[in-house]
Amino acid sequence: MADKNDGFVTEITPRSEDFSRWYTDVVRRAELADYSPVKGCMVIRPYGYAIWELIQQGLDRRLKATGHVNAYFPLFVPESLLRKEADHVEGFAPQVAWVTQGGEEVLEERLAIRPTSEVIIGTMYAKWIQSWRDLPVLINQWANIVRWEKVTRLFLRTTEFLWQEGHTAHETAEEAQAETLKILALYKEFVETELAMPVIDGRKSESEKFAGASMTYSIEALMGDGRALQAGTSHNLGQNFAKAFGIQFQGRDKSVQHAWTTSWGMTTRLIGGVIMTHGDDGGLVLPPRVAPYQVVIVPIQRGDWQTTVLPSAVRVRDALVAAGVRVYLDDRDTYTSGWKFSEWELRGVPLRLEIGPKDIEKSQVVLARRDTREKLPTPVDGLGARVTALLDEIQQNLYARAREFRESRTTRAESWDEFVRLMEGRPGFVIAGWCGSDACEAEIKSETQATLRNIPFGYEGKGGACVKCGRPAVAEAWFAKAY
Amino acid sequence: MADKNDGFVTEITPRSEDFSRWYTDVVRRAELADYSPVKGCMVIRPYGYAIWELIQQGLDRRLKATGHVNAYFPLFVPESLLRKEADHVEGFAPQVAWVTQGGEEVLEERLAIRPTSEVIIGTMYAKWIQSWRDLPVLINQWANIVRWEKVTRLFLRTTEFLWQEGHTAHETAEEAQAETLKILALYKEFVETELAMPVIDGRKSESEKFAGASMTYSIEALMGDGRALQAGTSHNLGQNFAKAFGIQFQGRDKSVQHAWTTSWGMTTRLIGGVIMTHGDDGGLVLPPRVAPYQVVIVPIQRGDWQTTVLPSAVRVRDALVAAGVRVYLDDRDTYTSGWKFSEWELRGVPLRLEIGPKDIEKSQVVLARRDTREKLPTPVDGLGARVTALLDEIQQNLYARAREFRESRTTRAESWDEFVRLMEGRPGFVIAGWCGSDACEAEIKSETQATLRNIPFGYEGKGGACVKCGRPAVAEAWFAKAY
Fold first, then answer.
1. Could you give the number of structural domains in chain B?
2. B116 found inside a domain
3. The domain containing residue B353 runs over which residues?
4. Which of A17, A33, A214, B102 has the fewest CB atoms within 10 Å distance of its CB?
């Protein structure tokens, strides 16, 4: 990730011209993230990190409200522990960064930098859990994760990323399954409400399961270029990890049993999802709920504006702050009003508030919506309530627009020819019958690049014939080219 | 840290008997932290992490209120970059964990796991800062840090720990110095207000400076065993890092200049400081402002308590929550009231609230203060306000008690004999004249184990003669045996 395109980005490529370049230009020009001198690792700049902080707050609040608590486990995983769960190590070993020296000392055993924390957390749960009275354990961790990636992309796939990972242990299989689905529903509600990003929730196929899981569920969003983005996953780990790490407890009937565990996570890639769901040729478009600044105030810089206009702008700022709005008054005199207009448009601020001498005469301001580009002269009187209502409206509109886009890009394929034609044409979700075999799934992928994103709950047991082999379908699955 | 004392702690060693064992027993028995299977690394358990979250919130709020923003920089530092600032690499290289392999690939260049982030952040600042208009840059990061330690201790010194690290860049030397001192003052106010931990603020000697800094300042607290704990540091880095990493800007006069930078940090060791400042033979004593639960409600479990007492306990809980108190209603029927009393005492909850049938008759509850062990029958009417006031009182009392303890353990030594006698006797701070030479400082340390903690601002230019060599003193310094 280092040393390429390292100069300053002055203009952004139009989205309609080259989506991929547009994406990178927006991330860098809006100062969300930057390349670092470390291969594959990004720097999350303050404006991007402020979005992450809002995501953390919204998600953390929901996790705590459902009884989860936070903790912190070591960054390192001794190699011998990583090898205890066979599927898990097979899945993750190729992506592990290894520490082999500490200070002056060459280590006797290599330490993996956590590619995920089931192993280290499972080892601790085996110590902490003795009785059914100790269950459930509902722990979440906010942490950095390292997975050695060959091809990386800012926010979407980086060698190091930030995430939350939940790890729970339960008394029965039913409770573990209920937790897995509860989190999936929580993720869907969070992403749709806060990020205005509609998602499809369902189960992953065997081949796309988390390494070591009994069942993986995901939420899948559709980006502005018609490619899917996996936005979050929730895994039912069955007793696999409990058996590998010895998480046992004495049950109500005094028998010794293995616990049933789950794990689930969402990452900084969500920020990439926000950019690609809502952005346009003008740059970033942020949903108000995760916008670091929901309103930017730009005083019109004519004449002696610092004495004629600025005091009114300050009063407006204070009124909006009092109404609970995140607001920035851009009173810098080193930039023109016009420069500020395009700067804050590019950085996706939901509402721009203009105020000049004529507005002050009329006791009004002019609000400009980033999503629709409408300009709305608005009385200063009652401004706080009006802005709050408008921000809600923008949030709803972004969700509705994204959902409409997804619907316009979701098609049911009745035959293999149609499936291929759809995938070659305008990208999006294609719904098709699937026989349940790995072979058909693999052929579909190699012939069309489309992967089976998931099987939504209502789509199990439907679909007539498999779109690839014609045998009876076990479900209708959602396919797409994906990030 | 693995594999020793790995069983469950059932009782804690009295503090008066063995402070060090008491400390470890409290940390483990109160479920603040635990040993992990990784040498030198700890697990921060939910109860300990909840304290850290309260520390984060209080500190983050103060940093943002003073114009700082958060960001995130990579975990890895390429070896060639680490070597750019000579003093810095000399200071940190012996403590670095090295990644030498990523996935299947042996790395051409080793990657250090950040022992601190001046290097990676300085490299980015060199890209981002072009003009005086870009200054100041006021960035903070919440992150994990790895320093390979030979001897570790839960919270106080661990191979991996959590911290915040601020990194700022300024136009002038004066601004950088002002920032360095502003943060030192912010740290002192934070630690004294939130953790009720009185500290001495001052400058470090040359030998105790941060590797690569022009000047290091610290805040120093006194623990319950009379040993000092460095609770936070703030460094003026001068132009050292700007020159090593090329952080240059065009000044107001168009000349190209190097920026002036600072860095500063506080860590999870603060939790150890809280334990050792306020704890007693009964276990943990938490200051209300950082107590995960400020009040624990224990219903008296007599007769049919779940129908006679519990509904009143629930109402009391709801009233306290409405008053903004962090409260836990311990309604578990698997434990007795007596067990709960000693459990929550050990875990340091500032106020226990008992409620039984007789209290309900009298429309009262009984509050038990953890700090003084007083029992206070209190009317249910107006309980929220009373509890809030009591929590404030407990916070003030803990601070006053710790300050009084420090004062009783701070002595001025007029001669070397007296200095030695004081250090051999009851430990604490010893104030003494110092000539400013590394040699005297080193001799004092080797002969008494006491280190120069810092020179408070009012103590510069005082002190008559050096307590060690008798030459004229440049300052009175504060010495102590330290963690």
1. 3
2. no
3. 293-393
4. A17
Whether B286 is covered by a domain: the verdict is no
| Rounded Cα gap, residues B191 and B295, in angstroms | 22
pLDDT digits (tens, 9 = 90+) for B282-340: 999 999 999 999 999 999 998 899 999 999 999 999 999 999 999 999 999 889 999 99
Same domain? A264 vs A310:
no
| Pairing of β B364-369 and β B375-379 | antiparallel
Nearest CA in chain B to A77: B38
Q: What is the pLDDT of residues B15-36, one digit of tens each?
A: 999 999 999 999 999 999 999 9
**Neighbour order of strands in the sheet with B364-369:** B327-329, B295-299, B351-355, B364-369, B375-379
Mean predicted confidence (pLDDT) in B97-116: 95
Structure tokens at A45: 């700049």
Distance from CA of A226 to the nearest CA of B (A): 30
Same domain, A234 and A361: no
Flag whether the ipTM exceeds 0.90: yes
Q: Tell me if residue A281 falls in helix, strand or coil.
A: coil
| Helical pair A269-278 and A383-408, crossing angle rounded to 10 deg | 90
Pick from A73, A110, A149, A335 the residue to mutate for testing the B interface (most B CBs within 10 Å).
Answer: A73
Residue ranges for chain A with pLDDT beneath 70 = 1-9
**CATH code, domain with B199:** 3.30.930.10
Tell whether A1 is covered by a domain: no
Residue B43: which of A69, A74, A334 has the nearest Cβ?
Answer: A74
The pLDDT tens digits of the residues spanning B108-128 come to: 999 999 999 999 999 999 999
A171 to chain B nearest CA, in Å? 17
Task: Report yes or no on A469 lying in a domain.
Answer: yes
Q: Residue B290 and residue B295: Cα distance in Å, rounded?
A: 12
Residues A416 and A387 reside in one and the same domain: no
